[in-house]
Specification:
14 helices, about 0% strand, Cobalamin import system permease protein BtuC, ABC_transptr_permease_BtuC, about 75% helix, cell membrane, globular, ABC transporter involved in vitamin B12 uptake, BtuC, membrane, transmembrane, mainly alpha
Length: about 350
């Protein structure tokens, strides 16, 4: 029997290798076909101390067109899967996902508001959409938390119900804005479907930095999340500061989700299905489940976006994740693999 540290290292190494392979293969696919060796040479040549002779056209295609989108997809998948893992453990509910406390709905309200009324936030439209979506996501999460908190305590059941109520209300706000969106309707709906078509290196860098920082803090609280699965009273008796831990877990998971949704729109099923699959493979221990789910989510979304952009008519990646995720989740239900945590 492997020690936990060896087991975690083995899984992380294997999934990291898988992610690298998926990224390289994805970068070869497009209107101009490139070989894996060419893509690897372009990436290798991007290092400051390396000089490799690669065609200029290949460098432009890989570094300016494909790799920013692929990198952003990996970052978004990483964040959504990690946040979904935390939410499912926090709520002890297999149906929990990163949007369960209204983060995605809040982001959608902010983004659609700017699309319908571009003057709402000064600056370039794309920056305005991302800023509004990020702020809307955090405001929604904070509102749900404040509504559910009383006398310094935040019951999980109350938090869940508050999240459902706020999501419903924000859904009505989004529908109202769409009805009055006029010519902006197509752009708003496209954003709501989730897409990576406007990706660039700056988006990947900012979203990646936020997600990585949040992930490191969440990883430090993986043991406490394991203990919370036993119940709040048992967790308190084992030395866990329950309310403080709950606030930190919710805040960090919401921040990761906000960073992902702000740059990619609403992408479903990544944070719902991926943690389930990895839980079946590695077990419920969040010390190994959290990093493996995050890496698997990164690979999953890169593959999904590769499929989305491979057709004659490019699809929003959210459509592909729904096509794949919904049937697979139904399969898990039929196999009774989805059960209360």
């Amino acid at each position: 029997m492997f020690r936990p540290g060896v087991r975690i290292g083995g899984w992380v190494l294997a999934l990291s290798a898988l992610l690298v392979a998926v990224v390289l293969v994805s970068a070869t696919i497009g209107p101009v076909q490139l070989g894996v060796g060419t893509v690897a040479a372009v990436v290798w040549n991007a290092l400051p101390w390396v000089e490799v002779d690669v065609p200029r056209t290949a460098r432009i295609i890989v570094m300016q067109l494909r790799l920013p989108r692929i990198t952003l997809g990996a970052v978004v998948g990483f964040g959504l899967a990690a946040a979904g893992t935390v939410m499912q453990g926090f709520f002890r509910n297999p149906m929990a996902d990163p949007s369960i406390i209204g983060v995605s709905s809040g982001a959608a309200v902010g983004a659609v508001a700017v699309i319908v009324a571009p003057f709402a936030i000064p600056g370039p439209l794309s920056l305005g959409i991302q800023t509004a979506a990020f702020c809307g996501a955090l405001v929604a999460a904070a509102a749900v938390y404040l509504i559910a908190t009383k006398n310094g305590r935040t019951p999980v059941a109350t938090l869940l119900l508050a999240g459902v109520a706020v999501q419903t209300f924000l859904g009505a706000v989004i529908s109202f804005m769409l009805v009055h969106s006029g010519r902006a309707l197509r752009e708003a709906i496209y954003w709501l479907m989730g897409s990576l078509h406007a990706a660039d290196w700056s988006q990947a860098a900012v979203s990646g930095a936020i997600s990585l920082l949040c992930f490191l803090f969440l990883a430090a609280y993986a043991r406490d999340l394991n203990v919370l699965l036993l119940g709040e009273e048992d967790a308190h008796s084992l030395g866990v500061s329950v309310e403080r831990t709950k606030v930190l877990l919710l805040a960090l998971a919401s921040l990761m989700t906000a960073a992902a949704v702000a740059v990619a729109g609403v992408i479903g099923f990544v944070g719902l299905v991926v943690p389930h699959v990895m839980r079946l493979l590695v077990g419920p221990d969040h010390r190994i489940l959290l990093p493996t789910s995050a890496l698997a989510g990164a690979s999953f979304l890169v593959v999904a976006d590769t499929i989305a952009r491979s057709g004659a008519a490019q699809l929003p990646v959210g459509i592909v994740t729904a096509f794949v995720g919904a049937p697979f989740f139904l399969y898990l239900l039929r196999k009774r693999e989805v059960h209360e945590l």
